[in-house]
Amino acid sequence: MATYYVDSNATGLNDGSSWTDAWASISSTTTISDGDTVLIASDHSETHTGLTLTFGTTTPSYLISTNKTTGAYEVGAELLCSSGGVDLNNNARIRGVSFETATHMRLNAGSNGYQEHYELTFYGVPAGVAFAWEGIN
User: Which of 23, 64, 88, 90 sits at 20 to 30 Å (Cα–Cα) from 46?
Assistant: First the structure.
């Protein structure tokens, strides 16, 4: 189990290994495995045309908005979609992140999984578009 970092203001190696070398985009989290933690800077903001995040398949992965100076949990990270939607797949514990979508918001835990969300904001789902909870009990 590893800890990775995401910060749009980082200026280092962009390898996710520390706040200095943090990934500049959440889309770099393709190597996240069961039980890994992704700390996303509370002042992080980025825009996508669509966003799919896939977490652990047997053990939950964590995505936590964090104050990069103190290391403490802090609400504020923003992941936005100017077009397209947001898909959060598999076992996840997500805390303090705002998601904006232009078309849909899909939470898909799968047949044996679960997701936990704390202090999240989901906004921008157009009128008449479903907010899908798939496999969530």
Answer: 90
Task: Specify the DSSP class assigned to residue 57.
Answer: S
Q: What is the C-alpha to C-alpha distance for residues 137 and 135, in angstroms, rounded to an integer?
A: 6
Cα separation of 137 and 127, whole Å? 24
19 vs 92: CA distance, rounded Å: 22
Check if the beta carbon of residue 62 is closer than 8 Å to that of residue 87. no
Quote the tokens at residue 73. Answer: 């949990």
Q: Is 52 helix (H, G, I), strand (E, B) or coil?
A: strand
Query: What is 20-33 written as a DSSP string?
Result: TT-BSSGGGGGG--
Q: What is the dihedral of CA 129, 48, 31, 57, to 10 degrees?
A: -10
pLDDT at 29 over 60: yes
For residues 83 and 72, give the distance between their C-alpha atoms in angstroms, rounded to a whole number. Answer: 32
For residue 29, which phi and psi values (nearest 5 degrees)?
Answer: -80, 30
Give the whole-angstrom CA distance, residue 118 versus residue 1.
Answer: 22
